[in-house]
């Protein structure tokens, strides 16, 4: 298994779930961009950290571990860390599935739909432009990477996604030519 993997996608695509499963199975440290992007507050996700502070904290966390998997998006603010990635996994999940997951997560966390503004923002991922975290922004960001990219499309069980990453990782272990592979369910 590769030692430095970044998993990104839209909110609700399963990046955190997949990264946690991959880390647990292979002994990697799981890092999540939200833990570096946001200052811990109650309620959470209210106050952003300054970019330099995010980068410093994330660099330190990466240096503390020989193997890690990073979930979430750092497109733009985290670009200085791109050379550390051995593999980038891009999860693409249908909007209706993502939104159903996000509503369920909101209810689980807060016992109601606490952040309607967030849900409205997340619902725009596939149609928005570069003004926000969007499919368009992620596609442009991925286009500039030299790191191998694995695109996993569709709604699939975590074990199936893990198997695809493990297979791709074995094939890429000695090959860093920036190839991309797309797997649809």
Topology:
Elements: E1 4-9, H1 15-26, E2 29-32, H2 34-37, E3 38-39, E4 47-48, H3 51-63, E5 68-71, E6 87-92, H4 95-110, H5 116-123, H6 135-143, E7 149-153, H7 158-172, E8 180-184
Parallel strand pairs: 1-5, 1-6, 2-5, 6-7, 7-8
Antiparallel strand pairs: 3-4
List keywords for this structure.
alpha/beta, 185 residues, 6-stranded parallel beta sheet, Rossmann fold
Question: How many independent structural domains?
Answer: 1
Distinct helical segment count: 7
Taking Cα atoms only, what radius of gyration do you get, to the nearest Å? 16 Å
Number of strands: 8
Strand content: 15-25%
Q: Any idea what the CATH superfamily is called?
A: P-loop containing nucleotide triphosphate hydrolases
Roughly what percent helix? 40-55%
Quick one: CATH class?
Alpha Beta
Q: Describe the sheet with the most strands.
A: 6 strands, parallel
Shape category:
globular
Structural class: alpha/beta
Distance between the termini: 23 Å
Q: What series of H and E elements makes up the topology? A: EHEHEEHEEHHHEHE
Mean pLDDT figure: 93
Gist?
The chain has 185 residues and is of the alpha/beta class.
Note down, in words, how this protein is organized.
The chain is an alpha/beta fold and 185 residues long. It has a single domain, classed as P-loop containing nucleotide triphosphate hydrolases (Rossmann fold, 3-Layer(aba) Sandwich), CATH 3.40.50.300. The protein has seven helices and eight strands, in the order βαβαββαββαααβαβ. The chain has a six-stranded parallel sheet, with helices on both faces. A two-stranded antiparallel sheet has the order 3-4. The longest helix is centred in the middle third of the chain and has 16 residues, at 95-110. It starts with a strand and ends with a strand. The model has no long low-confidence stretch (mean pLDDT 93).
